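Kindly inspect this today.
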Amino acid sequence: MTQTPEVRAGRSTGGGRLRRVIGASLVGTTIEWYDFFIYASAAGLVFGKQFFPSLDGTAALLASFATLGVSFVARPIGGIIAGHLGDRVGRKAVLVVTLMLMGLSTIGVGLLPSYDSIGVAAPILLVTLRLLQGLSAGGEWGGAALMSVEHAPAGRRGYYGSFPQIGVPIGLLLANLVFFTVSSVTTEDQFARWGWRIPFLLSVVLIAVGFFVRARVSESPVFNDLRARRARRSAPLAEVLRSNRRELVIAIGLFIANNMVGYILIAFINSYGTRTLGLSSTTMLFVGMVGAVAWGVFTVLAGVWSDNWGRRKTYLIGTIAMAAWTFPFFLLFDTKSVPLMLLSVIALAFGLGLTYGPQAATYSELFPAGIRYSGVSFAYAFGAILGGGFAPLVSTWLVGETGTSLSVSGYMLLACLVTLAAVLALRERPAAEREAFVSGTG
């Protein structure tokens, strides 16, 4: 197929331009998920008392985790809107909008009065802001993943596609680090009254940095090709649902276990460690930070391994590793020994990384270029709903009903088996066909 000079120039991406694209994807997703995760941390640590004081301890925590899950209801809507605009208008413009929406919503949470100040309006506004965060998160990942993968050179899409992925563990690390610092320099009463707001308000600095970085990157060469050839679809999601249902189901299944187990690490263990095991919040935040670092390292390695071994094999190893570790994870965690707890989260992060690093490249290789943003965003959003959306809420309920964390291990194992079925159904294209398909020339 003959390509325009603009497209050939776009595909001849220099090292400097590629670094800017990867940096923008990484910085943007880090900020996006920092905002998302400070909410998850606050939900486990303080929101119950701040916004649901009339409920007892467990009920307040369940209500707080319910607001965490509410955002996942908005994710598909955000994914549909962003996917349509991303396939019609371009990847770059959508990414700037999602970043701003997430940042402003996060600052709003930091400024929100408590229940004691404005009554029932407080939890209503909290849910509203959380829904806006969900809209943003639903559209963010797909664009960041596609910008990285579609700019990447042949044979390196797994590696470069892992960079927006590590924005998630870096965002988690940054969120835990900020909460750890604030809780360390304030008293328990100060942290409960105003200290928890600081991580949310710091988001204003991150938004400015992210906006500056993202505004400087070039549009995806694949989208420029579609625009030059006038090959954009008028209804991309409808075409996904009509022509790519099998790929959509597989993509959703691939994410269920990773997202579910990830939210156990992100949100549940903080409240479980402090409320059930009686450990300090600083200890739990430290354990979470170590888990985030390990998750990030294994994610990048998995991106490289998926280029060398193949996406399916990398996913298979990671899924089996996660499934095998579901029961040892809590058996070690419940010892309350910090070294054993660290071992438990690091080993869990191995499976998380191997099922997260290849995701951007794998999703991009499942959907044609003209409907790709819609396909990956829809699959990501629904995988998140079925996987992690209400995982902290369900896990808290399971421990309350059964009296043992091993019930959560069984819940994690069930999710791993669903993802394993999706991995086994995944058909991997030969290398040459894969590159042509992703670039839009095949």
